[in-house]
Amino acid sequence: MTAEPRAAADRRTFIPLDPSLAPPGTRAFRDAGGIPADRWHADQNGETLVPTHCCFCGVQCGMYLRVDRGGKVFGVEPRNHDINRMRLCPKGINAYQQVNHPDRLTAPLMRRSRDEEFREVSWDEALDFTVAEVKRIQQAYGNDAFGLLGGASLFSEKTYLVGKFARVALKSRHVDYNGRLCMVSAAGANKLAFGIDRAGNPFSDILLTDCLLIAGSNVGECFPVMTQYVWGARDRGASLIVVDPRETAIARTADIHVALKPGTDSAFFTSVLNVVIAEGLTDENFLAAHATGWEEVKAKAAEYPPSRAARICGIPAEQIVQVARTFARAPKAMAWHARGIEHHSQGVENCLSVISLCAATGHIGKPGAGYGTITGQGNGQGGREHGQKSDLLPGGRSITNPEHRRQICEIWGIEESELPPAGTSMMEMVWQMQRREIRGLIGICNNPFVSLPNYRVVKEGYDATEFHAQFDFFLSETAANAHVVFPVTTWAEDEGVMANAEARVVKHNKAQDPPPGVRTDTWVMCELARRLGAGDKFDFSGSRAVFDELRTASAGTVNDYYGITYERLEETGGIAWPCPSTDHPGTPRLFEDGSTYHPDGKIHLQVVEWHPPMDPYDDEHPMSLTTGRTVAHFLSGNQTRRLGALVEQTPRPWAEIHPSHGFRNGEPVRIVTRRGSEVFPALVTEAIRPDTVFVPYHWPVPTAANALTIDALDPRSKIPEYKVCACRIEHADRIDEVPAPPVAPGHVAYPETQVSRTDPLPPTSPQGRGTSERS
Amino acid sequence: MMGRTIFIDPGRCIGCQACVSACRECDSHRGTSMIHLDYTDEGHSVASLPTVCMHCEDPVAPCAEVCPADAILVTADGVVQQADTTRCIGCANCVNACPFGVPKIDLGAKLQLKCNLCYDRTAYGLAPMCATVCPTGALFYGTVEELQAERPGVQVADTFVFGETEVRTGVAMVVPAEKVRWPVPGGLPVVEINGKDVRR
Ligand code: SF4
Ligand code: SF4
How many angstroms separate the CA atoms of A219 and A524, rounded? Predict the structure, then answer.
């Protein structure tokens, strides 16, 4: 090929290192020869690589944390894990910087009223005050006047404890979690259709498909490492269909990019089904053998011819036909969706319409054919499986099912009469706080001041509470409203499991001891329970003990974790549930025998009727505001807004606007909705529909997208309608800057052994320099 | 083209800047990234592509050619190293000479900085940090055969024309198969695809 050996000898040359000279024990040596799977191993400099996973999104990339001689995390090294094969996104690369961030909370903060300043107090004082307030509020107003809000970035062990703590220690029905803001619409739809709440296929199936449909998912920015599977499918010649109002990085290269109007997804998918039926592309044998409700769904689809859907969705009718043919004719096709179709007052319907399309074309339960939802939070999947959702008990059991209640009460050692009924969802709890029905609250691992819609209502709700405690490792916007803040561990300071978007359970390992003064969430919950008089039910030494109870509590359910142990996870790199016994390999792909998790083994297809979004358009508010993420930041930004490299990459939010509105790039524009107005710099681009404006939501007021969004909920999943509300855009004078939290430098200091090396070149043999003379 | 080298595939880039962050983590630069991301058609498309050192082979590294202090060394396997700190005088000649706009000058330290293909990793058979983490494979490290095994039919170019001058590089660019005669990003006509001269 490129031929001519270069005349290197007469140039400045530099003798390369001989790989065989890498000293045994160094990182380079170990990596070059393949690191023994998941083994802790210190090299000559005392550096240890601890195998773990990223703390952020639902891909759950494997990574090593670099730990120095002093036992402190100081860097990251890519890890050849099955999920990500060395890949990481910028959040994953910079995640380690939060572990020893100067902004970490290291002592409990307390104040008796919101007028006072926080002061650092002892753990005893903070715990005693909290317990006294819980007792005071519950004695005065009843047990349900105290609520608990958890989070889906917690390990599954901790989410199990959140559910148990609320019901057994607080004896309150009011517990929910921020996964309610994430993928509960997909969960609800999957449960209705399949009787199981998870994606049907592993990521690796994407590589086998012939047609990939991605709906409402900005894969490139929100789940960047999943992109390698998408491009891998493209390499094999798979066609790509992207349904998104914006031309995202994935949409840019799609065969068909359907830029529909926000909030019209189910009309679109039902119309695609209409064409599939009209063109005789349905798989009638599959439907007859494996589905119920098909006749009703078929009749409804007849009401959505492409001409009608094209008007609703604001797209050409031909695109609908094109999508139907491409998806249905593919030998194997797959649909993956995310918040873009789930964050709606009809989120469950949107997901059901995608499921109907997959089932009607027989694209279910085969390698390369199926459906999946991509979880936003690291443990978005596992976070709801074990009982922190208001209507669920561990193992995905229903809190309203007498048999399920009996089973759990037996494990928890309480009477069935003591187990509270179902509570309300996260947003509804905030409304109850506003109405003073809930007067006390503990928040663990969430930041609703940025992440819930309609900020004004959220602020009023929290301000109305008589007592508010928050567990966090940084002082989030929500923690700043609390009476007590408990400083807790990061993901690198404890062990535990998370389930990623494939329902693959992976184990995170402890890389360093928590800073002095910091405790694990598990310890804090158990200690509070003890002081509330439920100590005997919370006698856990740590995550492993909780996990063992969780395994037992899930045994025999659809969400069966019984066969998953820490040891097996370390050996295998992850096991997909259900996994009923310790010799069971797990279940990466569902429905391979055509049977679902309903008692009749069928897919229960559901009729879907499209309705307009909850915030109506009028002359004052003619446009759609839609919100989402950017690649550098995660959820409410409490973590990523403090990391130098990520702040540098995306320092502030913006409003993405089509050029037809006549704004200049960078010009301040005011976005006005019925909830309020805020000013952002305009990002003028043709990559968005003219009737739509996009704002990323990771920032607090005064540039918070969620000061503008509507707190309308899906009636079934209770997910807020983040992805569409009516708005208008106006010229503005200036942008109010967000008061930025302290930012850590772009990188963390190297351990001593390496700092002493002043030459930026790698260590070389003396000859290396000797031959650098010019001839 | 070197044996194992970086291949840049702009069609895959999602603009995530994982490469930029990863480069900052590399032991040989400690906190400074040597990659930058270009947005080729801002306002119209989200298309982006990373710029890394192309490790020019023929003529050997214009940056090294013009260095009055002989600070830029080229390894026998074709890697153009960043300036030797003991020699670099921070004159910025290399910055002006590079046809791809790669070297940077740290004015405070009077020191040139550029991508050295993660020599601390590649010398031991590891991929450079950027190509290791790139979530999409827009940056791929390996041989052209390894690339083609993973991406059937992929075509690459490693020769660029600047007026009368041709530069053959160590790092190669993936070009769309059906568009082999189109300019590669940057407006430069492709003269060679997978080692074959396509100008005829
Ligand atoms: S945020 Fe998601 S894609 Fe990025 S490194 Fe973490 S797990 Fe991987
Ligand atoms: S990491 Fe890869 S996909 Fe991301 S910006 Fe860099 S080259 Fe592009």
Answer: 36
Contact yes or no for B27 and A769 at CB 8 A: no
Other Cβ atoms less than 10 A from the Cβ of B187: the count is 6
CB–CB of A27/A47 below 8 Å?
A: yes
Which of A57, A368, A334, A324 has the alpha carbon at shortest distance from A215?
Answer: A334
How many Å apart are CA B144 and CA B5, to the nearest integer? 8
Closest CA to A208 of A373, A366, A372, A371: A366
Question: Which ligand sits nearest to residue B20's alpha carbon?
Answer: 2
Exposed/middle/buried for B190, CB within 10 Å: 0-12, 13-18, 19+? buried
pLDDT averages per 10-residue partition of chain A, 775 residues: 37 45 47 44 70 95 90 90 92 94 94 96 97 98 97 95 97 96 94 95 95 96 94 90 94 93 97 96 96 96 96 96 95 96 96 97 95 92 93 95 96 95 96 97 96 96 97 96 97 96 95 95 97 95 95 94 94 93 95 94 96 96 96 94 89 94 92 95 93 96 94 96 96 72 48 29 25 25
What rounded mean pLDDT belongs to chain B? 83
Beta bridge partner(s), residue A398: A392
Whole-structure pTM value:
0.89
Task: For a ligand 1 pocket test, name from A52, A64, A88, A629 the mutation site with the most ligand atoms within 8 angstroms of its C-beta.
Answer: A88
Pairing between β-strand A146-150 and β-strand A175-177 as defined by DSSP bridges: parallel
H-helix or E-strand spanning residue A551: helix A543-554
- CA angle A301–A304–A305, rounded 5-degree value: 110
Whether the complex's predicted ipTM is more than 0.95 is answered with: no
Token pair belonging to A708 = 């503008």
Q: In this structure, are residues A266 and A353 in contact, taking their beta carbons and an 8 Å threshold? A: yes
DSSP A422-435: ----HHHHHHHHHT
Q: For residue A242, what are the β-bridge partners?
A: A214, A257
Nearest to residue A627, comparing CAs of A228, A314, A218, A168? A218
Nearest CA in chain B to A90: B18
Structure tokens of A517?
A: 């003064």
> Quick check: CB of B21 below 6 Å from ligand 2?
no
Q: Which pair of tokens denotes residue A735?
A: 């942008």
Tokens 């990373």 found at = B50
Report the SS3 class of residue A350. Answer: helix
- What distances in angstroms separate CA A535 from CA A335, A525, A651, one per listed residue? 47, 10, 46
Rounded CA separation A326/A596 (Å): 26
> Going edge to edge, which strands form the sheet with A146-150?
A119-120, A109-110, A484-487, A467-472, A440-444, A146-150, A175-177
* Angle of helix A426-434 versus helix A455-464 axis, rounded to 10: 60
Please give the torsion angle defined by the CA atoms of residues B133, B134, B137 and B139, in that order, rounded to the nearest 10 degrees. Answer: -100
Q: Is the CB of residue A241 below 6 angstroms from any atom belonging to ligand 1? A: no
**Upstream peptide bond of A720 is cis (omega within 30 degrees of 0):** no
DSSP state of A737: P
Matching residue, tokens 């960043």: B82
- Residue from B114, B117, B63 nearest A16 by CA: B117
| Ligand 2 pocket check for B132: Cβ under 6 Å | no
Residues 6+ apart with CB under 8 A from A448: A149, A178, A426, A430, A458, A462, A478
Q: Which of B44, B11, B126, B184 is nearest to A227 (CA)?
A: B11
Residue A514: both structure tokens together? 């928590």
